[in-house]
User: What shape does this take?
Amino acid sequence: MTIRMRLALQFGIILAVTLMLFSAVVYYFSYRTGRAAFTNSLFARALVVGHVYADGANRTDEASRVSYRRYLRQFYRTLPEEEVRVYDENFRLVFREGASPRGVVPPARLRSVQQSGQEVWLEPNYYQMVGRRYHDRQRQRTFIIIASSVDTDHAEQLQSLRVILAGGLLVALVLVGIGGWFFAGQALRPMQRMVQEVDGITGSDLHRRLTQDKEGQDEVSHLAQRFNRLLDRLETAFVGQRTFVRDASHELRTPLTSLIGELEVALLQERPAAEYRRVLQSTLDAARLLKDLTNGLLQIARASNDPSQIARTTVRLDELLLQAHEEMQRRHPTSRIDLEFPESAGPATTPYLVWGNEALLLSAMLNVLENACKFSGEAGHPVVASLSTQAGRVSLQVHDQGVGMSEADRQQVFVPFFRAESVRTVPGHGIGLPLTAKIMDLHGGAIQVQSELGKGTRVRLELPLA
Assistant: This one.
């Protein structure tokens, strides 16, 4: 079932229930009002009968008494199945006019009227019976007057009301069904437009966006805004993936081309053993370069995974920095790396404890120290690595006095495979700082790079304390 049909049906059901309840309330109060009006009419006629009968009974002239009785009989010939009975104090019937199929009035009803003063009995088919006690002050005697009749006028009015309410309900349901279907379609028209626009967006045109009202505050506008933000993120990821694949292919092609070229040249003719040894050494160097590049790409892919899937534990950054320092001494034995720790740092306080993945954090430290050693090793200046804590965060600052970089290059250092103009001659792939930035992001940390051409570079890593 479509949303349009569901909305129209729900709206129709709600309105139908509402109209039925309203009709029931109207019918109920009309019934009660009509019954009460007819009851009051019977009481009024019973009171008139009491007056006329008492006045006629008090007449000494028999002709006058007969005239009053004739008047009463003529008076009680105007309502359907109308009957009046007058009883004396001993419950003896002294006057009756009209013929009712209801039979004799039970004595219990007469006693009830005598005690309470008046009573009303509602019976099926709109038949009513009222009893009233009438006191004749002239002769100091009491009568019980029982009047009954069928409220045919009220029955006909209620029948007409039922027809009107039923017909009105049917007409209202038809109109509501048509109107609900139309307005549901109007309300869902933006959704249909969104579906058509979404169907037209493919991987080759992720720049397209859904049309949205700039001032719209309804749910459809909010959905379009959220979907456009999703497209923004998808486009960014898609462009980044394209750039990554393109740059990775370019970087992988260089060592592969060198390796294939060396082997092809070596196979063109017979060569001495020394020449073959040189070719093998060159091939080994290219294979190592290819291995380093592949490992870097795998680390970037690993660092881009879901953070919840990465194993974490408490890590002491001071111990991790010592491991990184030892590894850098093995890789660059001629480089000098000075480590600095605040005097307040002691083994009992463990101020450098963080929550993270030890292998990834070690890789981030090695990347920063590797860049510092490569870009300042020939200058003979030491690399300074300082570890400190402040305001619930631990920071590692690595400062070298190498060639540095321009401001335009500094803004691109986190782009994979980007190489600054000043360090194009230094071996590398341009994946160290992008990888470090991803690792910091996975651990809720941050990385800052400050550099000036010819004056060195300062890299700062920050992580929250455990």
Summary: DSSP finds ten helices and twelve strands in the chain. The mean pLDDT is 78.
